[in-house]
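Our collaborator T.R. sent over the components below with a one-line note: 'Predict the complex.' Nothing else. No constraints on interfaces, no templates requested, no preferences about which chain binds where. So this is a plain run: every listed entity goes in together, and whatever single assembly comes back becomes the starting point for the next discussion.
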Amino acid sequence: MLEQYKKEYSQSVNQYIVVDLDGNILESDNVIFPDVVGKNLSDIHPFFESVHSALLEPNKRHIFSCIHLTNPENQTIITDIIVKTFDGKQPPLVAILDLTTHYDNYQTTAQVRNESVINSQILELKNEYLQEKEAFKNAFIANFSHELRDPLTGILTFSDILKKTHLNDEQLNYLRVIDSSSTYLKQLIEDILDISKIEAGKLDLVISPFNIKQLLEDIQSVFAIKAQQKGLELITNFNDNLPEIVGGDALRLRQVLSNLLENAIKFTEEGTVTFNASLNQIRAQKASIHFQVKDTGIGIPEDKLEDIFTSFTQLNNSQAYKGAGLGLAIAKHLVSLTHSKISVDSTVGEGSTFSTNINFILDKNQVLKSKKKDVLTPPKSNRKFSILLVEDSEITQLSILKILASRGNYFLDIVTKGEDVIPRIENSEFDLILMDIKLPNSYGDEITKLIRKMPEREHKKIPVIALTARVMKDDLKRYKKAGINDVIQKPFDENTLVSKIEEYLK
Amino acid sequence: MKISKKIVLIGHFGVGKSSLIRRFVENTFTEDYKVTIGVHILKKEVTLPKSNDDITLVIWDLEGNDDITNTRPSYLIGTNGFLYVFDMTRPATYQSLENDLDYIKDRYPNIPLKVIGNKKDLVTNDFIKQNKDVFGRFVDFYTSAKSGTNVDDVFTNLAEAVIKEAKK
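Returned assembly:
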């Protein structure tokens, strides 16, 4: 470095100028600005116009660093300029030091540094903007989906109720259309909510013991019918050595496998759909299970294999295949939560094979607990139960009223406003409360907190089940903290509602 | 009599100080960013519209600094007027605006100072309204060196203030 500095400074060129207090040049060498004697400093460069005041202060030394001047050849030189004044007897000295080479190097460094800082500030701003946009989108999706759920609950439950009335064949056919359309709409809303949860990083697995063989058989029975309706054959191969009870997220596993099977059936016009499940290995109390869904459908071009896992992507844009293109994106993410991947092999015109290996927990304690739970059956009772429904949506009120009335062993009391809940509880005896979360001017979880603080012990212990579309991880934590015992997600069907109520009224 | 006044442009780097001067003196603009090191000095003679005074503005284009207290004091000797420039698209360049203005006013209490929100071409009027808590309190001019919006007005307005101060 020292040598570099020496080299740079040895190239420097200095000019010394003696001036009077008005800046008139008395003496000068001719190194940078020749023939300046008799002129004024301000004739050399505008810089000197602004430093006249520095000449008037005696016994001062001012250094002006990195001053850009223009020499007589019209070139820019970068200089340090020293202005030294003495007492009244001695005229001031102006020294111009040409340090162009040195400052050029500094300029290069400063250029890189400043550009880098500015670019990172701009990137940060863009990132903030994108995050705000993303948060707005997720909030919009969550709110919009929530608003769709109330009317959809009405459609689903009243379709169920209508099925049990005396209908002729034509009416039943119409009802099937309503039923399948609303089921599809429900699935679509759930997929959109799942995608928004995934993008917000709020989708987590809930691990608990379940019977995997039972789950596979359930899936098989659902999709065998769907395949048959389309003239396809569903072939299943579930290995006998599969464990029975495993620890995992049964709901999400069902979702992944259902999405793969749904797609296989959708994009296959003739032939078969094969659904395989086999045990890879058991190691360290974990079972790795291989799942495969194979079809003889239209297949996927090789260059599009990655695209199929992107949200809202459906390769075949013709109207022949309905769907929002969310299923595979959701399945891919759910599988990634188990630290695994979905692989796909496909040949256009011959079909596709989707495969994944998923690890499940094999914990003896969990298995025993689960088996014990499996053999328990709820005791039957002829007792009538009193339920308080806190709900402002008339459709949901009517749906629940009809469902519970058809069962014959429930009394239902309804309040529509949060402020009416506590007085109603104080004046009645309820066995269970169904609590909407988003009420006019209040929230169900806040009301539950008040219930839990009531002085009467019986009131504090009434089971509270939330009815809500808001079931993000943070929401569930909040409900639990408020004292809510369980959650029924909107839109719900008759079975979900009744089985959850019975669980708490055993 | 020929009047010459020193105007200093101050503010963070990359806010457009050099571009404003280039637009005012040469009526040109370039998108290329070239960092200023040290100081560039240009001058321009103007006739002030109100007083009809002829004045030579010696304009000092100081290198940008994110900490105004680091400005070399020698650069500010003999200053007659300040233009404080920030970039409306980069909050980092106006986050310390109030402190910076206090710093200048404390040390140079009688020297006219105008505050400029630059790069107006890159923001909307709504954006300016949304940030009125900052911009509305301090800003004298919203400028665009690129389009030339308000650039001449800034310099002549400051020159008027400088002359007015000099006549006190």
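Summary for T.R.: The mean pLDDT of chain B is 93.
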